[in-house]
Amino acid sequence: MRHSILLLTALALHTAGSAQVRLTMAEYDVLKAEGRLPAAFELVRTTQDPITPRVHASKAPPARPKGGGGGVNGDCNCWIAPDSSYQLAMTPNDDGSSAAITIPFQFNLYGDLYNTLYINNNGNISFQNPYFTFSASPFPNNEFIMVAPFWADVDTRGDDGLGLNGGQVLYKVTPTALYVNWVAVGYFASQTDKQNTFQLIITDGTDPVIGVGKNVSFCYKDMQWTTGAASQGVNGFGGIPAVVGANRGNAIDYIQFGTFDQPGITYDGPFGSPDGVDWLDDQNFVFTTAVSTQNIPPIASSTFLCDTVRVCTGELVDIEMNFIAPEQGQVTVASSTAPTLSGYTEVLNTSGNNSVIVQGQFTPTPLEAGFHTITFTATDNGTPPLTTTIDIVVDVYYTTLPAPVIGGDTISCNGQGAVLTVPPLYDTYVWSNGYDGNSVLVGPGTYSVEVTAGYCTFGSNTVTVVEGQSPQPVIAGNLFSCGDDPTVLSTTQPFPTYQWNTGSQDPTITVNTGTYTVTVTSADGCEGTSAPVNVLTAPVPDAGIVATPPGPVFPGTPAIFSDGSTSQDPITQWLWDLGGLGSGTTNTAGITFEEPGTYPITLLVTTANGCTDTVTYLFTVIPTEIFVPNVFSPNGDGDNDNLEFTGVEYYPNSDLKVFNRWGQKVYESTSYRNQWSPKDVTEGTYYYVLTRSDGKEYAGHVTLLR
User: Fold this and answer.
1) What's the pLDDT score for residue 655?
2) Which of 24, 116, 167, 533 is the most buried (most CB within 10 A)?
């Protein structure tokens, strides 16, 4: 690999003024990146790289003046694309310069006449010496004699190691003009993620390419960065601002259009805070340095500084003119007129600022087909006041077609994109992303389209497509269906539409065993599909209880209750309720009942799959004795109406016989359950015999009262 050799002479490094240090380009880059280059030194090439003529293809289509409603009007353009007549000013480099170039005319820089100059890689031309200086200094200053369309740390070496993608600096010389084009150039150190494209033209003041009486033109296309890393920039911005203007080098004669250190279109005049580099996009400054006074008239800047702007009837047209007061502290008052355009109005006028914007708007009618003049006038408050007048010629072409209006979805779903469309009425379509056709599939971003129809060129409205997030539905529900019971599935959050793999479009579905998914649509129209879920059917257990002893039992008898369930799946959980007197969680439970009664013993069993069943076993505890009454009153008042033998209900098939005082049987039951409440016997004393089902006999008297 060939290494360029640089000679570094630096008093800061060597006490002897003539001492020289030989550095490779890599060594130079290291010193520059680390900020260890001395403040003043001379950069000289020991070998002059050959300058090879080359045909250049522009990397981007020529810009057109911007029209109303996001439109584009006419074909006026300050940019002159390099062709086969251009030469390469220098091979890919950082901080380099061309050899001395002799021009066939004299260039007037504030009274100093030059016909020899150097094209410096860092966005400027100089006249007495080449400049390697990569960090710009604002104007005026007494150090640099230059014309600088964009003085910043340009690096054309690229990041591919071959110098093929870092941009080019090209030039050509005519009898009355010098053209220099910085085309898609990167920044230090070999960065190409952002690139700048701009042009300088200087003339003898008679060349009509920029206008008679003018001798400098700055023209800008897409400007994307301001500062290299060695100038304290980060990712192309911040640090020491880039400078735009011209400087005689005497700290008196100069012009400055601004300094730039950030993205965006912020601009507060030539001498305010550093501005946004996007403000320069498509701008054109045309001015003269053939003066020796500091009272300079306002400088016009616009994308319409050309002979004729061509527009079409029915098109909303915006024409904007900027005026910059070159002297600090000046105030400029501007206005515009278009007497032959009936609908012309000023929609913006910022008179009074260092940087004045005048914007006119009109929609030409069919009766206005032909040529018209819009006159912009700006006057400063210098001594004496000076005025600049700019005439813009407008050629109105008759057409019945409207400007295109973009329709379509403005939300781009992940992996799907959005389709933008304009009516298929035009001959050609050029979208802002470079695609053609009346419909395009796009991702997130801001889009417009320029169309042509015969002679007319129309610009569309601007549409911003935002990224829509695809929904991520999650299916919720019991994924086990016990027995024949179906499961209800839904999503954890609602959506506008549903499409289940069962065919259902309802928010919920009822299913049995199977695999299920759902595709939903969000409010933005984006689709998303859930992860599949599996629903399983599990058998239901048949709960059972085995009691030992089975009962009935007498009070104080221990009872053991065991799980007697049957189940295809193993039972893993038990929950006992022992008549409200106890509980258990294993497959058996025991208790001793101290009081007679019938106790509901309940068992809830659960299988490994979560299916459940419940059973209740009525366990009887019988009393050891029956308590005999001595009186009862069957009068229907609900109190002691029946002949009750407490505890007889635990002895089924107990026999009761009742006799009156004369030994006559008045009542008999072979399965007495305390049900006798006589209505047809008189008050008195009655004799009873109760024979319990186990053979034990109770006999005695009872009094019946009404």
Assistant:
1) 95
2) 167
Q: How far apart are CA 536 and CA 607, in angstroms?
A: 14
**Helices and strands (H, E) in the chain, number of each type:** 1, 55
Local structure of 27: helix, strand or coil: helix
- Sign of the Cα torsion 79, 82, 87, 90 reads positive
- Which H helix or E strand runs over 491? strand 487-491
Distance CA 580, CA 378 (A): 101
Structural domains for the chain: 1-47 (no CATH), 87-287 (no CATH), 306-397 (2.60.40.10), 407-468 (no CATH), 475-532 (no CATH), 545-621 (2.60.40.10), 631-704 (2.60.40.3080)
Residue 33: per-residue pLDDT: 79
> What are the start-end ranges of the H helices in 447-566?
none
Q: 0.85 exceeded by the pTM?
A: no
> Which distant-in-sequence residues (6+ apart) come within 8 Å of 155 by Cβ?
93, 94, 121, 166, 185, 186, 187, 188, 189, 190, 191, 228
3-state secondary structure of 68: helix
Q: Read off the pLDDT of residues 607-648 as tens digits, 9 standing for 90 and up.
A: 988 889 999 999 999 888 888 899 999 998 999 999 999 888
Q: Locate 637 and state its tokens.
A: 């008042």
Q: What is the pLDDT of residues 486-529, one digit of tens each?
A: 889 999 999 999 999 999 999 999 998 899 999 999 988 899 99
User: CA quadruple 457, 463, 464, 470: dihedral positive or negative?
Assistant: negative
Contact 519, 528 (CB under 8 A): yes
Handedness of CA 229, 233, 236, 241 (dihedral sign): negative
Task: Name the token pair of 575.
Answer: 């929950």
Cα–Cα distance for residue pair 634/401, rounded to 1 Å: 109
DSSP state of 17: T
Least confident of 27-31, 211-215, 524-528, 632-636: 27-31
Amino acid at the residue 206: T
Residue 616: beta bridge partners? 602
Up-side HSE of residue 218: CA atoms within 13 Å toward CB? 28
| 501 vs 662: CA distance, rounded Å | 89
What is the residue type of 513?
T
Contact criterion met (CB below 8 Å) for 361 and 311: no
- Is the Cβ–Cβ distance between 599 and 606 less than 8 Å? no
What span, in angstroms and rounded, lies between the C-alpha atoms of 483 and 181?
82
